Amino acid sequence: MGSGVFYLTKYFPGIESMFTNKKHLVWWHDIDECLELIDYYLRHGLEREQIAKRGAEIVSQEHTWDRRIEELMCIAKSYSPILATGMSPTAVLEKL
């Protein structure tokens, strides 16, 4: 998605918390649906390109290394009182 290509993927629980189906990418639940979607999007190139563009945009805006590190730090803070103090990673390591 980050490279701007159309992404057709098998549905997995939680994907809807990151992306919107048929807006950023397209997901399928079974092989029959997958084949129908392949046929549909091969015949609807403009729609496929628009989904690919929106997918690339959300990935470049929302799914960055900085965002992932922020998420990991939030998770770590919930498990560690030391991290919750806001100390730098170096200071935390020195405390261990």
List its traits:
96 residues; two-stranded parallel ribbon; elongated; 5 helices; mainly alpha
Task: Summarize this structure briefly.
The protein is mainly alpha-helical and about 100 residues long. The protein is built from five helices and two strands, in the order ββααααα.
Strand order of the largest sheet: 1-2
> Helical residue percent?
55-70%
Shape verdict: elongated
Whole-number total of structural domains: 2
Uncertain runs: none
**Count of helical stretches:** 5
Strand content: 5-15%
Structural class: mainly alpha
Number of strands: 2
Give a description of the structure.
The protein is mainly alpha-helical. It folds into 2 domains: 1-62, no CATH class; 64-96, no CATH class. It has helices spanning 31-43, 45-62, 65-79, 81-84, 89-95, and strands spanning 8-10, 26-28. 7% of the residues are buried. The model has no long low-confidence stretch (mean pLDDT 88).
Give the SSE layout.
Layout: E1 8-10, E2 26-28, H1 31-43, H2 45-62, H3 65-79, H4 81-84, H5 89-95
Parallel strand pairs: 1-2
